[in-house]
Amino acid sequence: MKKELGLFVTLLTMGALAGCNNQQEPETSQASSAETTATSMVESTQTQASSQSETSQSSTSSSQAASRDSSNTNSTADIYAQIQAVFPDLVLPKDIPLASGKVLNAATAGSQADASILYYGLDQQLPLNDKALNEETPIAAFQSKEYQSADEAAAAVNVTADDGGQAVDLGYGITGHIQGAAGSSYLSWQEGNWSLTVRAVNQEEQDPVPVAKEVVAYLEEAMLPAPEVGQITIDMGKNDHTATTVVWQQEKTLRTVQHQDARSALKMAVSMNQ
Fold it and tell me: In the chain, fewer beta carbons within 10 Å around the N or the C end?
């Protein structure tokens, strides 16, 4: 094309040259338009590919999370079965609440007549009674102990509820009584054969009333084991696995569950009534 234009340059007038140049401009415009269209198509393709990649990654993450949850559930069910195999004749907690993503681990000690279990919420599953658990911090505990008589078992409950002090409406027709002693506030009340106490630390400006009301509301929906004597103690000044203790006597047997979280301790006890 360039050679042909070169041969005719001497024969054309300036007007013809101008006309020839004017004819080339649309070609340049078309080329520019084609480049813009091509660029747009590339960008669109890249955007679609990026979107598909993000969707694929999101789907993979969801699938992996579901797989982990399923694995954790299976591991927890297996550890319950292993503990029950160690103490086949004992009624054990069937629900030990864990933080999200954690796996239940456990260490056992004792015999049918004097059994102890520590529970751990860890990132991985370890064998029952693995020595590595000695380096971990338990989140909950269970004990079952046989006494020589029902009276001995009842005395071991160590009921601490007190109906002295200022009356507090806890809802559902239940009245608690709050009083102070040695920098703490104690709120106590009675539900059937269960005595309940919430201890708050005054220096930390803790208020036992909301906690007590939450417990009362929960126990309106959930049923604890029926004890001959029972005591629930929630210590707001603690944050380890002994923060909440639920202990009760049934004939010559004393059962105790503990958890660092109050509602979780109650759930453990409730699960033994199912």
Answer: N
Q: How far apart are CA 202 and CA 208, in angstroms?
A: 10
- Residues 73, 75, 79, 85, Cα dihedral to 10°: 100
Q: Is the CB of residue 193 less than 8 Å from the CB of residue 229? A: yes
d(CA 179, CA 197): 11
| 205 backbone dihedrals φ, ψ, rounded to 5° | 55, 40
**Coil, strand, or helix at residue 110?**
strand
Write out pLDDT tens, residues 10-29: 333 344 333 434 444 444 44
Residue 37, pLDDT above cutoff 50: no
Q: What whole-number distance in Å separates Cα of residue 106 and Cα of residue 140?
A: 10
Taking alpha carbons only, the member of 173, 174, 222 closest to residue 196 is 174
Instruction: Quote helix, strand, coil % in the chain, to nearest 5.
Output: 45, 30, 30
Alpha-carbon separation of residue 185 from 47, 109, 157, 165, 231 (angstroms)? 62, 36, 21, 10, 18
pLDDT score, position 73: 53
Report whether pLDDT(254) > 90. Answer: yes
Q: How far apart are CA 36 and CA 30, in angstroms?
A: 10
What is the pTM assigned to this prediction?
Answer: 0.73
pLDDT at residue 65 greater than cutoff 70: no
3-state SS, one letter per residue, for 131-177: HHHHHCCCCEEEEEEECCCHHHHHHHHCCCCCCCCEEEEEECCEEEE
Per-residue pLDDT, 274: 62
Q: What is the largest CA-CA distance in the chain?
A: 130
